[in-house]
Every structure is written in C-alpha cells, then in structure tokens.
C-alpha cells in the first residue's frame, strides 16, 4: 500500500516539474511520514465563519473532517474540506490550499487520504480558521 501511495505522490510531484528521481525520493519520504499539518483556505466566504464559531463549542472528538475532490472552473484539483458534528450533515468549511490539493487530490479520489481536526484558531476580533492533520491511509 505504501508503494502505491508513494507512486501517486511521485506522479503529482513530477507534474509540478520535479525531476522523477527527486520526486520519487520526496514521495517516499512523505509516504513514510504519513501525516502533515494543514489549514483550510477560503474560510471567510459565505457562512463559514459562523459555522466555525459553532464548531468551536464542540470537542474535537465529535468533529469529523471529510475530504472531497471537487474540481471547479478555477482549480481542477480542488479538494473541499467538509466538517460534520456527530457524523451529521457535512458543511464545506473551506478547501485545501491549491498546491496541497494538487498533490493530495488523487489520494483523496483513491480514498488514501483522511483528515483529523487539530484546532479551530482565531477569534477575539480575528477571523477563525481550522487546522488539521492530513493523514495517509494504507
């Protein structure tokens, strides 16, 4: 399984202009690491700040993050970050940053990627944000 994940990451890195030998080396290192810190972008649009305020009231254990590949006119690799409480209806809270999405989009499609909330940040006059761990799933 790790080999499959590393090859998917490697192919994505090659598409970004990295020579194949460097892409393979970096992809193997990423696959072995297994998890990465991330932050959703686009959290200030629509009702997302209101949703984050509500989410802040819940413990991390009841918040689920879903990653959904949602190509659109601006980014064919866009990956939506959706949240739900107690496995209820999911709400799009933001997106993976463009570069991150271009590397992780295929893994999301293959159900080889997951996310787990770390913290809702901001408040006290600042915009709220959501930090999470991206995890490779074997």
Mind explaining what this structure looks like?
The protein is α+β, with helices and mostly antiparallel strands and 138 residues long. A three-stranded antiparallel beta sheet has the order 1-6-5. The longest helix has 14 residues. The chain is elongated, with a radius of gyration of 16 Å.
| Topology pattern, helix = H, strand = E | HHEHEEEHEE
The percent of residues in helical segments reads 25-40%
Q: Tell me what the CATH architecture of the largest domain is.
A: 2-Layer Sandwich
What is the CATH topology assignment of the largest domain? Alpha-Beta Plaits
Q: What's the total count of β strands?
A: 6
CATH class of the largest domain: Alpha Beta
Number of helices: 4
Which strand order do you get reading across the main beta sheet? 1-6-5
Record the SSE blueprint.
Layout: H1 2-15, H2 20-33, E1 35-39, H3 48-55, E2 63-69, E3 79-85, E4 91-95, H4 98-109, E5 113-123, E6 126-136
Antiparallel strand pairs: 1-6, 2-3, 3-4, 5-6
Keywords:
hydrolase activity, acting on acid anhydrides, in phosphorus-containing anhydrides, three-stranded antiparallel β-sheet, HIRAN, elongated, alpha+beta, single chain, about 140 residues, Alpha-Beta Plaits, 6 strands, HIRAN domain-containing protein, hydrolase, 2 domains
